[in-house]
Structures are given as C-alpha cells and as structure tokens.
Amino acid sequence: MDGPGGLFNGRVELRHLRAFEAVARLRSFTGAAVELGITQPALSRTVQQLEDALGVALLDRSSRHVETTAAGRAFLDHVERVLAELARGFDAVRRQSSLRLGFSWLLPDPWAQDTVARFERATGITVSLVRTDDALGAVQQGKVDVAVVRGRVTSRSVRVVHLFDEARVAVCSVHSALAHRSEMDWDEVPRWPLVVNTASGTTGPWSWPAGAGPEKIVETTNFDEWIESVAADRGIGVIPDVAVRRNIHPGVHFIALRGAPDSPVCLAFPPRPRNAVLPRFAEAAAASAREV
C-alpha cells in the first residue's frame, strides 16, 4: 500500500484537488465541469481517481444534489487551504515577474496601450517598456523578451508575428520648400534627399526598385538623429502616421502620401522563449490588433 508520500508521488495531482473542490463547492458535476472547462465524464474520472488514491469516498452521488461525505468534508477543509495558499504564492510570484517589451521609437497607438493593459489585467504581470535603438537586435541578444518591430523582418533567428499595417506620411522641415504641401505622391519622394534611420527605419533605398530610389541618402542611426536631421532640412523622411498624432517635433511638417505602401508592424521574439508568459502576451497583442 502507498504511504502518504506515495499518494502524492504521481497519483494525486493538483488537477484532482481542483476538480474535487469545484464539485464540492458547487454540489454539481455539471456546473464544476463548465467552470473548469472540461467535459463531465473527464471530471468524473478525475474525482474517481482521487477517491481511489485515498481509498475513501469523498462525494455522495446518490441524492439529487452531490453532497460531500464526512471524509469529504474533512478533506475539503485541507484542500481549500492548500489551493488558497497556492493562489497566494502565484500572486506573489506574478507581482515580482515582468515581461520586457522592446521598442525603438513611438509605440503604435492605441494598440500598445490596449495590449499592455489587457495583458497586465489578465496575468498580474508587469510589462517593462525598454527603449532601444535596435529592437530586433535586443531580442537576439536577450536584452528584451519581445519587441515591436516595424518594416519587413528577414532574420531567421527570431519568430515574427504580423499584427497590422500602418500608413506612411512624409516629414519635412518647416523651412523646407515642401512645407506648404498637404499631400504628395509616393513617386515624388525620390526627388528629394531622404533621411534614413539605418537601425530601425521603415523607409530607405530598399523601399523602391533598384535604380528608382532617391539619389541622395542621409544616414542616421536612431530616431533622435533622424528627426533632428529632418528638422534641420537635411532632407525629408517617411514615417508611419502614428507620428502625426504624437506631435514629435515642433520643427517638422507632415505631408500625406498618396500611393505609399503600408508599413507592417510585427512582434519579434526568440523561437524558444525563456519567459513562460510570452505566449499570453502574444495572444493579448493579437486580440488588440484585431480590434485596431
């Protein structure tokens, strides 16, 4: 016969305790099955396994409503304490846990705010926002758990999930000859020097067929350098339209682009993520993206 240690060495699992507690509390296999999200036959088998392991009947199934036996009532007191203590332990760990979300510049709105709020409410885990010039590189180096990446991602060292597309707008200095324009065609952009963020920019010479892009490229390595170069009238830039809503710089003017290809927004994370809650964040991100 199994001793006390043997009972819990593979024969009695947490699912058995949760199944018994739900049935005893609701006095119904049907209601407990719905609450636990399993079928009633599977629930009945789980409770029977627990009774077989303990060698005693915990539930009286003979009446119209399921009732606990004397042994069941005594055992239920212990089970409730165990589950309550376990829940407190989970909460304590969640409060100390976090997920690092990397981004190189303006997070898409309202997607980012909705995703973070949805995830934190569902898990109790804090999302730490990590500003980095190279969000994709931060994922590859393990500096963040997941990153928001704009543009096409060709690296095979990360897993990429497409969320949605953003419209593009042109940006010029308030002193530019284009500052009076409210619209321009995508095909006009190559006529002007183009300021490019080589680390995380969404538009560059690669955005046009070979030989059709801008003749002059002004390279920068981060968002701050990029926006200051545009404001200094060293060239024009092209950026997702989230920037229009965020008032990024008093020295620039936005111009709507006709015929510009959309800019994809993706989540990038390691193929084998170390953070166990990452799949739940991806689910929250996808749900928010569908609403956007």
Automatic annotation (TrEMBL):
CDD domains (UniProt xref): PBP2_LTTR_substrate
One Pfam family it belongs to: HTH_1
Keyword Transferase: no
Protein's UniProt keywords contain Transmembrane helix: no
Alphabetical list of InterPro entries matching this protein: LysR_HTH_N (IPR000847), LysR_subst-bd (IPR005119), WH-like_DNA-bd_sf (IPR036388), WH_DNA-bd_sf (IPR036390)
GO molecular function term, any single one: DNA-binding transcription factor activity
Keywords of the record: Activator, DNA-binding, Transcription, Transcription regulation
Gene Ontology annotations for the cellular component aspect, listed alphabetically: protein-DNA complex
Occurrences of domain HTH lysR-type (ranges): 12-69
UniProt family annotation: Belongs to the LysR transcriptional regulatory family.
Role this protein plays: Required for the induction the katG gene for catalase. Involved in the response to hydrogen peroxide.
Record's protein name: Probable hydrogen peroxide-inducible genes activator
Species assigned in the record: Mycobacterium bohemicum
Lineage of the species this protein comes from: Bacteria, Bacillati, Actinomycetota, Actinomycetes, Mycobacteriales
